Amino acid sequence: MDSAVLSISRPELLNIFKELQQKFNFSQEQDQVFKSHCHQFQQNMAGYLKASEHDISENNPLFQQIGKFRGILEETNQNWQKKITTQDTGVHFRAGFNDSLLVFVYGKVKSGKSSLGNYMAWGHTDPTDQQKSEIQKELQPIYFSGQKTEVKGGDAAKEAEIKKEFRVGATEATSSIQGFSLDGLTWIDSPGLHSINQENGDLAKDYVEHADLILYTMKSDSPGRESDLNEILNLYRADKKIILLLTGSDDVAHDWDDEKDEMISTTVMKDRQRRLDQQKYVRSALEKISELAGKTNNIEILSFSARYAQENEGQVDNFADSGMGQLFAALGKIAREDGVKLKHRTPMLNFKNFLTDFMSDLENYAQLIVDFQQPIERIQKSIPIQINEQKRLIQQQLSQKVDAEFESLTPYRDDPIQMKQAIKKIADTLAQQQNEAMITAQQTILQQVMSDFGSQLTNVIQHNALLDLPEFKIEQRTEQVADSVTSGTRRRNGGLGALGGGIIGGAIGILGGPAGVATGASIGSTLGGWLGGKTGDDASVNYREITLNVGDNLIHIQKQFSERLQNSIQVQMTEFQKTLLEMALNSAEHLVTQLKNEINSFQKQLNSMILETETKLNG
Asked: Among 33, 303, 373, 407, which residue has the fewest nearby CB atoms (within 10 Å)?
């Protein structure tokens, strides 16, 4: 390994950063447009939900669903506000370091972050006041403090700023965002990840996205743990520039000092092959992650010992072997080749990731609406089914009652007055029974489908249409029947005529002899009978008129009675269904439509802003 190429000293690195400072002329990416869109979206969504309180009553079965939906939306809005606040904090945090490369040291508790920071600032892992005073004033770091957690045992408020160094050695050495600045370089020391105090790790995660370069530290005696790999994967997904550092890559060698007659301990680097094997192991573990397979070559992995570098700073070869010189060389290369680009890229990349995070939340909004629509669709399908079932049941029951009631009318078929009164009584009775059946059916539907929706939708018959039936009529026919008979004279006169004719005919026959007597008698009798009949009167029959009931329109009335009853039930149930669906669903569907449109509009705005940001990043 050629140390002249792979290793540079700390003063050489500081000169590189000083040159880098002159190149920065960056105008901070503004996110006011996004904030305006986001504020308008939240305001509109809140307005729609507020209006729904008036449009959808507490009796509405969807009121509870809407309340749940409103709660989730409000919670999401609060999370968004937190994200925006964090983004603002980070942007404000970066604002003071726009003329330097922002390097963020990130990793688990006690992974050597603070020791590395102290060495970068002073050339010592745990500098004394005397060592600090020996550094030229213009080369001394300027410390600052950021946000702090309230975790017990961590550093005190502005501790690094006051002491001008990072605390080392304690279990929870760092519980705040703290750092120092040198010309062209801003170095951030962060709280440890995966500690027993989650607040510390959360604070580190809030700030890491604003870094231009991330140095991820892992102890060399336990590199490539799953928790570390997951953090590295998240950084990769955020498209961050990363260098992986295997810290503490040294051993303590023990030897006997014959002159002093005592055991002496010295710091030595782990042998080269061991360090390479550890680096290879970490890279292999990263390659096993599907998202990182074949993409780890651009992730640099370095082994180093800050303690060994400190002890051997004056020895070129030993310092190079410490790995610290390689880290400085890597930082110098980034500063020379990518420093300005990273500085411009980071806020745009952060902004893109920020927008993408909101897009992901909008997908959750969309899923909430899908979930919200399910009970609406269920109600839409269930109401007609339940109504048809209850309608058929009522129609069947009342149809049977009509048949039974009309059979009881037989005794009144010859009495229109009593029949009309009886039909009116049936109409009143069945109208009341229909109302009772309808109320029961509608309440049953409300309980089965809508669950405690109340009885405000129950309809009753306002007008009894059954009273408008045709008037009962009896069909009658008039007939004449014989009442008495009057005797006539025609038969009597005919008999006398025949007798007289016979005498006359006999006289004629005498004139003709014995044969003539018989013939003449016959002719005379016929002729006499005819003449006698002509001279007499017939018998007469005396008649009287009677009225017969030959039928009535009762069957027609019963048919119309049944038809009107069926139609009345149909109309009433149809109106009930319409009213029920309108009151139960229309307001909810209108709300869902409003929310959908608002989400789609915001998605389009975010997509447009993401596309514009990607264009700048790729330009």
From this structure: 407
Alpha helix positions (H), 305-338: 306-311, 316-321, 324-337
Q: Pairing state of beta strands 176-182 and 250-257?
A: unpaired
CB 494 within 8 A of CB 548: no
Asked which of 14-23, 57-66, 212-221, 328-337 is least confident by mean pLDDT, the reply is 57-66
Say what the pLDDT of residue 505 is: 47
**C-alpha to C-alpha distance for 581 and 115, rounded to whole angstroms:** 70
> Phi/psi at 102 (nearest 5 deg)?
-90, 105
Give pLDDT, residue 528.
Answer: 52
Check if the beta carbon of residue 122 is closer than 8 Å to that of residue 165.
yes
What string of H, E and C letters represents the secondary structure of 177-246?
EEEEEECCEEEEECCCECCCCHHHHHHHHHHHCCCCEEEEEEECCCCCCHHHHHHHHHHHHCCCCEEEEE
Residue 197 or 235, more confident: 235
DSSP secondary structure string, 258-274?
TTTTEEEEEEEEPPHHH
pLDDT of 246 reads 94
* Token output for 1: 């390994």
Q: At how many degrees (to 10) do helices 339-407 and 32-55 cross?
A: 10
- DSSP-H helix ranges across 56-197: 63-95, 113-122, 129-133, 159-163
Top-level CATH class of 3-26+98-337? Answer: alpha beta
In the structure encoding, which two tokens stand for residue 458, read together?
């129950």
Residues 261-313 pLDDT 10s: 788 888 899 999 999 999 999 999 999 999 999 888 888 999 999 889 988 88
Residues in contact with 107: Cβ distance below 8 Å, sequence separation at least 6, in sequence order: 113, 192, 193, 216, 217, 218, 228, 245
Residue type, 110: K
Q: Which residues have a Cβ under 8 Å from the Cβ of 510 and sit 6 or more positions away?
A: 516, 517, 520
Which of 226-240 are b and which e, b meaning 16 or more Cβ less than 10 Å from the residue's Cβ?
eebbebbeebbebeb
Element (H, E) at 2: none
**Whole-number Å distance between alpha carbons of 185 and 96:** 12
Closest Cα to residue 51, out of 594, 453, 603? Answer: 594
Tokens 């790999």 — which residue? Answer: 229
**Per-residue tokens: 421:** 């009164």
Q: What is the DSSP letter of 448?
A: I
pLDDT at 171 over 60: no
The first and second tokens of residue 443, run together, are 């309440």
- Alpha carbon of residue 448 to chain centroid: 24
Domain with CATH 3.40.50.300 in the chain: 3-26+98-337
